């Protein structure tokens, strides 16, 4: 039997009873003959509580100390899970991210994994132990400081461990039964997907589907690790994220995998940019220097009378103030007129690898939004995705209308949200 890597989120570890249930699940896999490595998140809302505590102490806490504080949540979880496994008659060894060999860059708060050296994990497996690893954290290769990977970092930890250990599968346990065609909180008739491709899951994750994080899926695709998304509250088979979702299944992939939405973005418009070579480059260089990731970008055709143009883009809402500050610094250099900021937007995305061979998808998508009275502010596309920005108040209606228009509604309610967070 090979190695199985599992990940349990905060809702699966919400209290002592939940931790005992998780321990029993881990022991079942061990009894079946597998070696088990588990990445755990902080219990319940622990991370949010720690953030609130920090905010009460300091309005601008140092990034290094924030990482030291936030990693405590996962350390609590790993020790408690190891204790619960011990009570079931099996030995477990818990490790922090640094002890487990998770090596990152030096960016506090959103570090990236650059290597995993799982020597201590392999030794513990060889001695017959179940290994519990604190997710969401690592140690910087350069500074030797403790780092955190950002929200959802435990997903990435789990898949990175699976890749380093050449595991058979990485099981991501959450509080829903798998990946659905839309958020069940908005569309109760959403259908569970049995299998989905890495590329579709990448687009779903990038467009706001919170069930898996983007970096986690990227890691899985890069190293060919099958990811099984399932609920820790049921024994149902979940959703397999694999290279070829048609293997062993249907002859042809479904046209549409799902509808994703994102309420976490904001829009900035740089008004009156001189239409000269290099001006747009300077704007985006300033944003890159501020470590800001952009999503959609639209530049209008310049007005003939003024030779000025407007550039609009979307970005994470949490980076809005940083971006506005960075752009304000270069106003004299670039010579734009003003900045407009809008954080009352939402993004709706239609995703499916079958789009490549089916014309008319875009027309049908836009027609469904028009019929629902939803106005489109921005449009972005890829080979397997169409995304639009709409007013925040129209998000739910847009998701429902699109889901129904593409015949994604299930005949019976399939989705159960056990924990209430979707993580």
From TrEMBL:
Coiled-coil segments on the chain, per record: none
Superkingdom of source: Bacteria
Binding site for ATP: 7-10, 174-175, 185
Family recorded in the similarity comment: Belongs to the aspartokinase family.
PROSITE patterns: ACT (PS51671), ASPARTOKINASE (PS00324)
Protein name: Aspartokinase
Signal sequence segment: none
Pathway in which the depicted protein is active: Amino-acid biosynthesis; L-lysine biosynthesis via DAP pathway; (S)-tetrahydrodipicolinate from L-aspartate: step 1/4; Amino-acid biosynthesis; L-threonine biosynthesis; L-threonine from L-aspartate: step 1/5; Amino-acid biosynthesis; L-methionine biosynthesis via de novo pathway; L-homoserine from L-aspartate: step 1/3
Enzyme kind, highest EC tier: transferase
Binding site residues for substrate: 47, 74
GO cellular component: cytosol
The ACT domain, residue ranges: 268-344, 350-423
Catalytic activity of the protein: L-aspartate + ATP = 4-phospho-L-aspartate + ADP
GO molecular function list: aspartate kinase activity; ATP binding
EC number, as in UniProt: 2.7.2.4
Keyword DNA-binding: no
Biological processes per GO annotation: diaminopimelate biosynthetic process; homoserine biosynthetic process; lysine biosynthetic process via diaminopimelate; threonine biosynthetic process
Keyword annotations: Amino-acid biosynthesis, ATP-binding, Diaminopimelate biosynthesis, Kinase, Lysine biosynthesis, Nucleotide-binding, Transferase
Pfam families given in the database record: AA_kinase, ACT_9
UniProt xrefs under InterPro entries: AceGlu_kinase-like_sf, ACT-like_dom_sf, ACT_Aspartokinase, ACT_dom, AKii-LysC-BS, Asp/Glu/Uridylate_kinase, Asp_kin_monofn, Asp_kinase
Cited function: Catalyzes the phosphorylation of the beta-carboxyl group of aspartic acid with ATP to yield 4-phospho-L-aspartate, which is involved in the branched biosynthetic pathway leading to the biosynthesis of amino acids lysine, threonine, isoleucine and methionine.
């Amino acid at each position: 039997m090979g190695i199985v890597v599992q990940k349990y989120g905060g809702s699966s570890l919400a209290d002592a009873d939940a931790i005992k249930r998780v321990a029993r699940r881990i022991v079942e896999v061990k009894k079946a003959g597998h070696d088990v490595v588990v990445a755990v998140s902080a219990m319940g809302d622990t991370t949010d509580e720690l953030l609130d505590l920090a905010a009460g102490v300091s309005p601008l806490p140092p990034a290094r100390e924030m990482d030291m504080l936030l990693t405590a949540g996962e350390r609590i979880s790993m020790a408690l899970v190891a204790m619960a496994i011990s009570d079931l008659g099996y030995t477990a060894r818990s490790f922090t991210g640094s002890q487990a060999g998770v090596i990152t860059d030096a960016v506090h708060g959103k570090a990236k994994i650059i290597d995993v050296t799982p020597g201590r994990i392999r030794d513990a497996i060889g001695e017959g132990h179940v290994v519990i690893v604190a997710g969401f954290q690592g140690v910087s290769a350069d500074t030797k400081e403790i780092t955190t990977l950002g929200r959802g970092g435990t997903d990435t930890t789990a898949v990175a461990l699976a890749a380093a250990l050449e595991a058979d599968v990485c099981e991501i346990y959450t509080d829903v039964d798998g990946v659905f065609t839309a958020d069940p909180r908005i569309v109760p008739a959403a259908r569970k997907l049995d299998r989905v491709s890495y590329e579709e899951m990448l687009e779903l994750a990038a467009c706001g589907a919170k069930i898996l994080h983007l970096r986690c899926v990227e890691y899985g695709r890069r190293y060919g690790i099958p990811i099984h998304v399932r609920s820790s509250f049921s024994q149902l088979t979940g959703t397999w994220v694999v290279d070829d979702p048609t293997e062993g299944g249907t002859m042809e992939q479904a046209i549409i995998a799902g509808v994703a939405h994102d309420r976490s973005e904001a829009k900035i418009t740089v008004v009156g940019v001189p239409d000269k070579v290099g001006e747009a480059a300077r704007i985006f260089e300033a944003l890159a220097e501020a470590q800001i990731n952009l999503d959609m970008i639209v530049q209008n055709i310049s007005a003939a009378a003024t030779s000025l143009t407007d550039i609009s883009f979307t970005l994470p809402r949490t980076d809005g103030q940083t971006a506005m500050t960075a752009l304000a610094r270069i106003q004299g250099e670039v010579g734009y007129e003003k900045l407009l900021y809008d954080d009352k937007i939402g993004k709706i995305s239609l995703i499916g690898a079958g789009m490549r061979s089916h014309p008319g998808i875009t027309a049908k998508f836009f027609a469904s939004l028009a019929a629902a009275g939803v106005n489109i502010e921005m449009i972005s596309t890829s080979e397997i995705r169409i995304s639009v920005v709409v007013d925040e108040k129209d998000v739910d209606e847009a998701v429902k209308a699109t889901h129904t228009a593409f015949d994604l509604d299930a005949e019976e309610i399939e989705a159960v949200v056990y924990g209430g967070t979707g993580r």
